[in-house]
Write a structure and sequence with these properties.
2 copies of one chain form a homodimer. Chain A is of the alpha/beta class. The longest helix of chain A has 27 residues. In chain A, strand 13 and strand 14 form a beta hairpin. Chain A has a 7-stranded mixed sheet with strand order 2-10-9-8-7-3-6, sandwiched between helices. In chain A, strands 13-14-17-16 form a 4-stranded antiparallel sheet. A two-stranded parallel ribbon of chain A has the order 1-15. Chain A contains 12 helices and 17 strands. Chains A and B meet through helix 3, helix 5, helix 6, helix 8 and helix 9 of A and helix 3, helix 5, helix 6, helix 8 and helix 9 of B.
Chain lengths: ~400, ~400
């Protein structure tokens, strides 16, 4: 008789954003006349930039003629895209990352989950708390996290690094030594960041204890302050301890286009084995590349026009962030984030739990946000709003919240 | 200190088609004047059908306007595509599969590998031998296959079901009971098929012993004979034992577009747990959907124009298959396949090993094929040619082979 992966049964509830989707759908069905504003899931609303649209049309035309048709892509991504990434995101910032250390994928969510494949089940993970739930959930599926303890809303075998008002929303080096450390800056969900000096401490620590850092920089395009690193490879020694995950979803609105990449420097080794070789093997065996037309769209993001146009989109969203931040402050909320990230993190009022506030906001203001507790135990009592709505809806949502 | 997944180190060499790619590149570099014809990897060469191109352009335009922009797709795929699949591929054939039992993905290779996630490491797999290498390689990565025994070119803990001339290229029910049975019909690489009555025996067997069948029907569009099933759900009882993998790569030339789907009937359970719920959880947690524009392209394949145009592509490739089959026969080769599948399977001449014949054909005829031994131990002494080249190249390749 076949046996299932029992680890799946340990997961509490469904994936956070699936749960939210179902709750909102149920409310809308029961209240068809209500106009719901979604500031919950981090999905963008602005259309693709003209330069990206042009690249898509052009490459679609190529696919319609035998002479310019493209079949299977190279395992690790087209050279034109990997070179554009290496030049723009790394060499221009003085980071020593070459095109063949970049693995193009269908997005950072897939990579965040799949990267676990190349590690033994026997590794202890450390995560910022709260954080993007995919890190913990996918490690739970792999059997790395022990058992879920409902009363703690936490797993028995995970090193949680609280990032609350008390720690200024930054993690402290853990007391118990982990093997794999997930860091996400600018942070999802708190919108907090880390300075280059602080990040250097993590790199030094990882090299010292033999840990690997999985650095999620999906929101780097939203950084506005000068001392915040755009990539972990700005730090000395990161080539021997860090994997970086990047996404086109938030810097270019590719949530429905699907494109991301992972960087694994060839100096990152376990004994004689490079993690680069293991990830290359996984890519070659369990994946067949991102679509040609999508890789051309990604290339267009790096063009002069693409940079200008996507820069305007980011400015648009960051204006929303400012609107939310200032609106909530004036309404008496305790808020943070929203300066180097498209997320605003607020303390729930009147000691409501995160889910109580979710229901309250959905029912009283018809605004959808994300309960902080969905991101980890230290997220309880907090709530996330995103700047990815339209400006009109953002203003309207804030008016409704202020009127509560 | 972090630990890697040691199972990766047990894998011999690199993924088959990566190895071939490297060998061909090295030969081409050493012999820049030689015109190499590739009938090795199963990549298509015909451009996308006009109906597909139109759908891509139309949906790209939608992505350029806020009112019609599409962000994150529904976890399991857009309803418009899942319904088209359910209607066309299942209901029209009298099979009881509903749209919500279909999971849209970025391709059957990803699904073939990722499906292992939902099963315990403690399952014994059975595979046709030879077969598409992804099944065994991905199970090896998960630690299910024991150790690789070089002298046998086989894994210690895999049930191999030989499909050679002696068995008429069909598998026999295994003596040792497996937990997970991979079947691929029309078969890659042999091009052989199975009748509905024969497949019914496998379904009955799986239900009897509590095994799950992972049925790869990526080549169903190439079936030309009437008694060959297009889906395993034509068999009674398949809903309680079978998962089906499907691809748009070969029926519509989507190798560089990336689209596929997996069917998991809700009646397929381990105790009280449906595999459908586990796969839905994996999809929701480790994947973010296929691109909207690609799902619209998939929908267009099912339109009247799309069916006509992709049908013509298949006829074109099958004419190549006939050319190869007849050409090789007239040159004295022992061949099979090529009637219900785009693959021609030949016995290597003069007792050459599969890789010896690969080198021979590459060097003497500048034709690339795939060594049978790359598909499993019983593939040794065989060789695969594909019908996916252009007609002109196919004819030219056959002329060169005949002239050897």
């Amino acid at each position: 008789m076949f046996k299932i992966n029992d680890n799946y049964l340990k997961l509490p509830g469904s994936y956070l954003f699936s749960t939210i989707g179902k709750k909102v759908a149920a409310y809308q069905q029961a209240n068809p006349d209500k106009e719901i504003i979604r500031l919950g899931i981090g999905d963008v609303t602005q259309p693709l930039a003209p330069a990206v649209i042009d690249a898509l049309h052009k490459s679609v035309d190529e696919m319609g003629h035998a002479e310019t048709f493209h079949g299977y892509a190279p395992d690790l991504g087209y050279e034109f895209l990997r070179s554009a990434i290496a030049d723009h995101d790394y060499k221009k910032r003085g980071c020593d990352i070459s095109a063949d250390e970049i693995f193009v994928s269908d997005g950072a969510k897939s990579d965040s989950g799949n990267i676990g494949d190349i590690f033994s089940v026997d590794n202890k993970i450390a995560v910022c708390d709260p954080v993007y739930p995919v890190y913990v959930d996918t490690n739970a599926m792999a059997g790395r996290t022990g058992d879920y303890i409902p009363e703690k809303q936490a797993w028995s075998n995970v090193v949680y690094m609280p990032c609350t008002a008390e720690t200024n929303f930054a993690p402290e080096l853990p007391k118990e030594t982990p093997d794999i450390i997930y860091l996400c800056f600018p942070n999802n969900p708190t919108g907090s960041t880390i300075t280059k000096d602080e990040l250097q401490k993590w790199v030094d620590y990882a090299n010292k204890v033999g840990a690997v850092i999985i650095y999620d920089a999906a929101y780097e395009a939203y950084i506005s302050e000068p001392d915040v690193p755009h990539t972990i490879y700005e730090c000395d020694g990161a080539r021997t301890c860090a994997i970086e995950l990047r996404s086109f979803s938030k810097n270019a609105g590719f949530t429905g286009v699907r494109l991301g990449f992972t960087v694994i420097p060839k100096d990152l080794k376990c004994g004689d084995v490079t993690l680069h070789s293991l990830w290359a093997r996984r890519h070659g065996t369990k994946f067949n590349g991102a679509p040609y037309i999508v890789q051309r769209a990604g290339e267009a993001v790096y063009s002069e026009a693409g940079q200008k146009q996507t820069g305007e989109q980011i400015a648009y969203y960051m204006n929303n962030a400012k609107t939310i931040l200032e609106g909530l402050k004036s309404a008496g909320y305790t808020v943070s984030g929203g300066v180097n990230a498209p997320y605003i993190w607020l303390k729930t009022p009147d000691k409501m739990t995160s889910w109580e506030f979710f229901d309250y906001l959905l029912e009283k203001a018809n605004v959808v946000g994300t309960p902080g507790s969905g991101f980890g135990p230290s997220g309880e009592g907090y709530f996330r709003l995103t700047a990815f709505g339209s400006y009109e809806n953002t203003v309207k949502a804030l008016e409704r919240i202020k009127a509560l």
